[in-house]
Amino acid sequence: MENRLLKHTLRLMTVLAVLLQPGAMLAADPYTPDGVRELIRRVETRTDEFRKVVDRWLDRSRLDGSQVEDDINAEVKRFERRTDALRRKSERMARYEEVRDEVRNVVDAGRRIDVMIRGGKWNAEIKSRWRNLRDAINALGAIYKVRRI
Q1: Which residues lie below 8 Å from residue 7, measured CB to CB, with a gap of 6+?
Q2: Which of 20, 30, 61, 102 is 20 to 30 A from 52, comparing alpha carbons?
């Protein structure tokens, strides 16, 4: 019995010694610049694909040549420029926190796209691509504690 108690005491002392080392209690940052950059690349790539699908659909719709088509294209291009700016800045970042403002800009622009998609009669492909893109944006926003779309 004493031998067992001694073993448990030694284990506890070892664990405490490790935990009490300077810096041992600090939580590691779960986000790395490389991991965040990869998610940003995914958002940017999906945005490019989304823009192409929307543009192709609009060109085949009754909206072709209308002011409504121009307005939709302008909004989608504005959103794409924001994702491009985020990706460019992320390629130079040393810490993931450095692109917080750009992420907020992308999420804010994404909200406008979300309202447009929810309020319109879009085909299934556009809705599906938007859902996938919105999920990636929300995952990115969660890292920066930005309200979901």
Answers
A1: none
A2: 102
Q: What's the alpha-carbon Rg for the chain, to the nearest Å?
A: 24
Q: Which of 32, 3, 14 is nearest to 143 (CA)?
A: 32
Cβ–Cβ < 8 Å for 82, 102: yes
Report the half-sphere exposure of 60 (CA within 13 A, side-chain side).
8
Tell me the per-residue pLDDT of 136-148, one tens digit each, with 9 for 90 and over: 999 999 999 999 9
Total residue length of the chain: 149
Q: Report how far residue 74's alpha carbon sits from residue 23's, in angstroms, rounded to the nearest whole number.
A: 50
Listing DSSP states for the chain in one string gives -HHHHHHHHHHHHHHHHHHTSTTTTSPPPS--HHHHHHHHHHHHHHHHHHHHHHHHHHHHSTTTTSHHHHHHHHHHHHHHHHHHHHHHHHTT-SSGGGGHHHHHHHHHHHHHHHHHHHHS---HHHHHHHHHHHHHHHHHHHHTTPPP-
